[in-house]
Amino acid sequence: MILRKKTFRKVLRELRPCRGKAVLSFLLAMIEVAGTLYLPILIGQAVDLIIGKNHVDFDGLVPVFIQMAAAIAASALARWLQTILNNKIVYTVTENLRIRLFTHIQVLPLSYLDAHSSGDLVSRMVQDVDRLADGLLMGFTELFTGVLTILATLIFMFSVNPMIAAAVVVLTPFSLLLARFIANRSHRYFEAQGKARGAEAGYANEMIENEKIVQAYAQESRVTKRFGTLNEELRSHSLKSVFFSSLVNPSTRFINEIIYTVVGVAGALFIISTGATSLTIGGLTVFLSYANQYAKPFNEISGVITELKNAFVSAERVYELLETPPEPDPVRVERASEETAACEREETSEAASQGHVEFRDISFGYVPEKTVLDSFSLDVRPGEHIALVGKTGCGKTTLMNLLLRFYETDRGEILIDGVSVRDMSREALRAKFGMVLQDTWIFGGTVRENIRIGRPDATDEEVRMAAKRAHAHSFIRLLPEGYDTVLKENGAGLSEGQKQLLSISRVMLALPPMLVLDEATSSIDTRTEKSIQNAFNALMEGRTSFIVAHRLSTIENADRILVLADGHIAEQGSHEELLGKKGLYYDIYQSQFKGSAV
User: Fold this and answer.
1) Which of 102, 223, 254, 319 has the greatest number of C-beta atoms within 10 Å?
2) CA-based angle 353:356:357, to the nearest 5?
């Protein structure tokens, strides 16, 4: 209950920027209710004007009919305007929420993103926000008018006949208590439904992204079976939540019909016993109409409560993501404009050209019970080319993740030119490095836009020259629109090698002060790799570079090769020095070249 109250307050805070529109919506609701409630009075007057044989007052009916038409028109217009206004309020709130969610995801730690499926995050940003919008829209549309209708009808009924009105008020709480009882029982099923929906979306997203692997290993039946299990869980929770929530309206409607019957019987008995002096037939008609008007909002509000329960479950999932602490970055500065950011990147690049990197006694583990790097120290001289080799899981890529602050060290510090990386904003730190990773990323956009990602202000000629140095120009010019060819998400239609060439083109264009090459040529044929290696050698000239490699042929010219094992540096030296030692590096080298010879 406390959690839901907190969520309710958070949702109310989202409405603050639209409070002017909310006040106007409330005023329109008052006009709608006034028109709706004035109509039964006019109907009662009309009934009294036609009671009795040959006593119909036609002259009196005309102005009543005119007033009825005006009341209906005013009420309908107010309702129409209120609907437009409520839609603007709700969809402005949801638009802002989605922007905040997407922006927040950009600054979340990789550890959080690794622990949550992308499908679940997308489900929160799209589906959960949609359900919150549905709940808010129904709340605005029905809640304002419902509450006003109840208050206004109560005032009228007590002014006409307090005893009958008191009977209505006494019976009303039963409707509210029943609605609350059912809604509380359905809340847990809505929670389970939200979790099941996120799990299914995450699994579907994962399998669709890796469908090629699924088919390659003939896992279609197993994957389909697993999806069926998740789908069955969602079906089960959805049916339970819908079943309980659907009980609210008919249950409250039953009680409200009892109220209507009580009013009708009590009113008729009152007229018979006292005559028509204090309550006319037309007055009873108005009273019955108001009793019905009074009961109707409770049916609608019960539906609103059910919808809001579902909406608040979604809101809790949204705020859970929004309130996840971002990467700690105390020196982060907000950019006033892209132009300012570009200037700062340029200044940072010039200042960072020295490239002296120190790892001082750092330790790190992705989980507390397992250390990947333990008391690791390394001093990299400016312009030095460092190669990292070792078995899978020895900490090569982890070291680069810590250098670029994708993860934070558990102990120790990393310095660049004597300044701790913790004292730099992540943007300033990462602007010092150009990266080519084994896992390439191509976004939906033109070839030119994909290459320009590191330097948006680059000219077309500079883009073309970078592609030529990366040996990507030859395949780009064969594409349907050349550099203007629009690529699909993840570069569908391009080979892995072509995608990697585009990634290399980005670095060739950006010309960063330092380089991180993590299996940068793993998907490229041997002939092209030699050409690119020459381009990299020219690019690395005078730049501090870190090369993570499994193919030792690509690092023979490195200034220093580090062989990592169990979170430590097992060996280090030049290619020739390490071969001469006939240690771990020698064994790895021999296994590769003997294997290739065979």
Assistant:
1) 319
2) 125
Helices (H), 210-219: 211-216
Region 528-541 average pLDDT:
74
Range of the domain at 474: 441-511
User: For residue 360, what pLDDT band results from cuts at 50, 70 and 90?
Assistant: very high
Taking alpha carbons only, the member of 33, 28, 30, 35 closest to residue 68 is: 35
- Let me know: does 319 contact 99? Beta carbons within 8 Å: no
pTM attached to this predicted model: 0.63
For the residues 482-500, what does the mean pLDDT come to? 82
What three-state secondary structure class fits 19? helix
Q: Are both 172 and 263 inside the same structural domain?
A: yes
d(C-alpha 82, C-alpha 77), whole Å: 8
Tell which of 261, 288, 322 closes a domain.
Answer: 322
Residues contacting 106, CB < 8 A, separation 6+: none
282/404 same-domain check: no
**Average pLDDT, whole number, for the chain?**
79
Closest CA to 475 of 463, 483, 466: 483
Contacts of 508 (CB under 8 A, 6+ apart): 466, 467, 469, 470, 535, 539
List 444's β-bridge partners, or say none. Answer: none
Confirm whether 29 is domain-assigned.
yes
Query: Do 521 and 506 lie in a common domain?
Result: no
Longest dimension (CA), the chain: 125
Structural contact between residues 361 and 376, judged by C-beta atoms closer than 8 angstroms: yes
Q: How many CB atoms lie within 10 A of CB 300?
A: 18
Judge whether 331 lies within some domain.
no
pLDDT of 334 strictly over 90:
no
The H or E element that residue 467 is part of is helix 460-469
Domain shared by 286 and 416, yes or no: no
Alpha-helical (H) ranges within 275-362 are 281-322, 338-351
Residues 172 and 284 in one domain: yes
CA atoms of 9 and 315, how far apart (whole Å): 11
Sign, Cα dihedral of 451, 454, 460, 465: negative
Residues 448 and 412 in one domain: no
Residue burial 506-529, b: 16+ Cβ < 10 Å; e: rest = bbbbbebbbbbbbbbbbbbeeebb
- Say whether both 251 and 384 belong to one domain: no
Number of domains in the chain: 3
Is 452:458 a contact under the CB 8 Å cutoff? yes
* CATH number for position 414: 3.40.50.300
Is residue 235 domain-resident?
Answer: no
Q: Looking at 404-418, 440-454, 466-480, 486-500, which range is the least confident one?
A: 486-500
pLDDT exceeding 90 applies to what percent of the chain? 7
CB atoms within 10 A of CB 553: 14
Buried b / exposed e over 348-374, threshold 16 CB at 10 Å, is: bbeebbebbbbbbebebeeeeeebbbb
Q: How many CB atoms are located within 10 Å of the residue 218 CB? A: 8
The verdict on 452 and 469 lying in the same domain is yes
The number of residues making up the chain comes to 598
Quickly count: other Cβ atoms within 10 Å of residue 316's Cβ: 18
> Is residue 3 classed exposed, middle or buried when 0-12, 13-18 and 19+ CB atoms within 10 A define those classes?
exposed
User: CA neighbours within 13 Å on the CB side: how many for 385?
Assistant: 18
